[in-house]
Amino acid sequence: xxxxxxxxxxxxxxxxxxxLILLLLIPVEFVRGLIIERMDRYNETVSxxxxxxxxxxTIQGPVxxxxxxRVTARTKEGVEVAMDQAYFLxxxxxxxxxxxAQTRKRGIYEAVLYTLDLNVKGSFSLPTSLPYRGEIxxxxxxxxxxxxxxxxxxxxxxxxxxNWNGVERSFLPGTAGSEVFPQxxxxxxxxNPTAGGKASFQFSVxxxxxSDFYITPLGKSTTLQLTSNWADPGFxxxxxxDSHKITDKGFTADWNxxxxxxGYGQKFVASEQSSYSSLYSSRFGLELILPVDHYQKxxxxxxxxxxxxTVTFAGYFLFEIFGQKRIHPVQYLMVGSAMVIFYVLxxxxxxxxxxxxSYLISAVAVVLLISLYTLAILKDxxxxxxxxxxxxxxxxxxxxxxxxxxxxxxxxxxxxxxLLALVMYLTRHVDWYNLADKKLEDSEASL
Length: 447
What we know:
This protein has helices at 3-6, 10-51, 294-302, 305-322, 329-350, 355-378, 381-403, 408-426, 441-446, and strands spanning 57-75, 78-88, 92-106, 109-125, 136-139, 145-149, 161-164, 167-170, 172-173, 184-188, 198-210, 212-215, 221-228, 233-237, 243-247, 250-258, 267-269, 284-288.
């Protein structure tokens, strides 16, 4: 294809440039896939490291569970029954702990692990009846248990015991067949339904976990006091801490909540799932944030590829309009390919060095490459410097957008407006109908 012949049709040239931009979006998608693949590999490695230490932990309990038998149907042949479980939550529940975090590396990947020394205490109102409105045939008070739900019990390294009403009793593994809390610990508890009264409890646990830590506020009143050596916590969940202090040496945080806002009561039955469906969503705690968000930044950067290609190619098209040197489609492709390579460079460098430095190295390399290539094909230092300035502005803008996510939309809309205004200003004297036959010397002079 002889691009000089296409110069007689401005519209054909614009359509050709548009086609080249669409063509370059194919390798852009490959780059996006590469970034996602590296991100998945990172997550897999972190999960593998965590699996040998202890995964994300959520403490639920303690809770009293009482199994019972209920009637499901009455027929001519007899009565059909099924086993069910009633749960009773504590009146008050207080957690206090010290969380010591560390990082472990495998290759270029890093995971946050922690060891938590947690003390739990509170009290129960002992049950005298069950919260089931249907027909009950039998209540197994002698098979009642106190259970504590912990999702990854591999993180428990020491033998645990609970002080129940002044008596030290050892936990047993598992949750005694609980349908609501499938993993954790339990201890047998015989309840006298005619006695009622209150029971106090206290126990301590040394727990290993990774990435994040949560508790579920099962008490009528629930408190959590936490200290840690980790300086980058992300408080999350249903509620935020009432107070917290973060320094470069760690943080302290205090939570205090009641049962009014959590969406479930102090007792429920396993078969009535709607009565406790918000158990998971009521949890609160923190994430141990590791400043490794370069994959997310790379993925966000790729989203701006079409904008960068359009602006850059528009700049080179203006070089054609105001100069006598035509630019071949292959040369457009060379410039576009260099811009696509930027995302690969940025992603690969950021796996080994800091985000800002990896971005700087990648951007400088691409800007120099494109500037020197422009000088070679146009033989014009002024236009080569202009191209370098344009690319520098684009990559500076992208860096600001990536580091200021909350204002990305504002920055993007303002930048687009300024670019459009600049193009309109530069082409204000262009006679688009006679562009093929006129050298536009007047237009160039008007600049």
